[in-house]
């Protein structure tokens, strides 16, 4: 049974003294990570006249400064310092573990700052609207918990709800970084003569992994709307005659779309897009039986599934779909797929220690 508890005030109470100590001139402050979140924090602290003693980067020893601030390693940080961890997307708990092993006395994360002041510290990517959706749709989340096929899925959902509703980073302590298992988890049985559709091909690595794990596959399709990435994937897949690369975004209808191609792996359909791309329904794009659908399309998963209704109804393919880009997708996606085919079993897995890579499986 799923339990949804509002812990935000409790977490804020535990962190209040540390947050307030940032205003103390005697506090030694370090920022962990060099990314968009650390940039936000550094700019805000500088604007408030708060001195930053250093930026921690344990991965790149050749970098000596970031935004004019000296870069150091965790083992060079004085123990009585306060560190704000901005490593939140992939290896959150690995970063926090290094700080704890170094006996750092004060540890905050970007999530703590966000909880205290959403205006100064904007919601992390894929966190905007989480609280409202969970508050307003608790019945849907309890329904989701009731249909999950295994205890691992239920535990995963409970921890993710705690994290995404409360910004409780401790809820993520049981997860590990294992993106190499994403989409092809052992819960999904392999079939002979697989026909695989990779929606959101990006760099082609998912399809290459599919080929490696399913050497007897019948055929594969890779959809990638970004013109540059499409050409790159065509080159990568040239040695594989059973793979067809298609320059489309999987969508609810056949149409032209604006696409933001500037965000690397997070490039997506967007009204602020910089290129025009073709959207296509899988139902009209691909003929014949499909055995395995994968969707990682940066928030357009629901639209892509709507365009795959006939395939799902006719062939009941295995489906691996990312649900972390939009909080409501945790329940809207299973509602939709089970409407198309009520015979599916449903499981949930998470593949990082932070905000990214939550996949729901239908099989």
Domains, number: 2
SS-derived structural category: alpha/beta
**What kind of assembly state do the chains in view correspond to?**
single chain
* Number of DSSP strand runs: 17
Span from first to last CA?
22 Å
Give the fraction of residues assigned to helices: 25-40%
Globally, the shape reads globular
- Please state how the strands of the largest beta sheet are arranged side by side: 9-8-7-14-15-17-16
> What is the count of helical runs?
13
Largest sheet: 7 strands, mixed
Radius of gyration (Å): 22 Å
CATH superfamily of the largest domain: Vaccinia Virus protein VP39
Listing every helix as H and every strand as E from the N terminus to the C terminus, the arrangement reads: HEHEEEEHEHHHHEHEHEEEEEHEHHEHEE
Under CATH, the topology of the largest domain can be stated as: Rossmann fold
Mean pLDDT: 95
Low-confidence stretches: none
CATH architecture of the largest domain: 3-Layer(aba) Sandwich
The portion of residues forming beta strands comes to: 15-25%
- What top-tier CATH class of the largest domain fits best? Alpha Beta
């Amino acid at each position: 049974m799923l339990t949804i508890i509002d812990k935000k005030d409790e977490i804020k109470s535990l962190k209040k003294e540390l947050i307030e100590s940032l205003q103390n001139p005697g506090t030694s402050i370090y920022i962990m990570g060099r990314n968009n979140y650390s940039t936000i924090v550094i700019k805000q602290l500088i604007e408030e006249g708060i001195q930053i003693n250093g930026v921690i980067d344990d991965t790149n020893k050749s970098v000596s400064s970031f935004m004019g601030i000296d870069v150091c390693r965790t083992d060079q940080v004085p123990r009585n310092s306060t560190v704000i961890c901005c490593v939140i997307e992939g290896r959150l708990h690995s970063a926090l573990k290094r700080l704890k092993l170094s006996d750092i006395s004060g540890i905050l994360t970007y999530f703590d700052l966000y909880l205290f002041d959403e205006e100064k510290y904007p919601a992390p990517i894929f966190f905007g609207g989480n609280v409202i959706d969970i508050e307003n749709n608790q019945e849907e989340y309890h329904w989701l918990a009731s249909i999950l096929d295994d205890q691992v899925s239920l535990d995963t959902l409970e921890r993710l709800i705690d994290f995404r509703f409360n910004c409780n980073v401790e809820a993520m302590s049981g997860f590990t970084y294992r993106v190499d298992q994403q989409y092809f988890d052992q819960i999904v049985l392999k079939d002979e003569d697989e026909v695989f559709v990779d929606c959101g091909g990006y760099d082609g690595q998912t399809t290459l992994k599919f080929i490696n794990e399913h050497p007897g596959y019948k055929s594969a399709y890779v959809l990638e709307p970004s013109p540059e990435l499409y050409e790159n994937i065509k080159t990568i897949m040239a040695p594989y005659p059973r793979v067809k690369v298609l320059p489309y975004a999987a969508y609810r209808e056949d149409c032209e779309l604006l696409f933001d191609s500037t965000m690397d792996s997070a490039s997506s359909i967007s009204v602020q897009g910089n290129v025009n791309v073709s959207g296509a329904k899988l139902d009209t794009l691909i003929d014949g039986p499909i055995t395995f659908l994968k969707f990682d399309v940066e928030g357009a998963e629901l639209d892509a599934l709507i365009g795959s209704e006939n395939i799902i109804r006719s062939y009941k393919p295995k489906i691996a779909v990312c649900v972390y880009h939009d909080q409501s997708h945790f329940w809207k996606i299973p509602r939709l797929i089970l409407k198309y085919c009520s015979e599916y079993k449903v499981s949930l897995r998470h593949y990082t220690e932070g905000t990214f890579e939550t996949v729901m499986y239908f099989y």
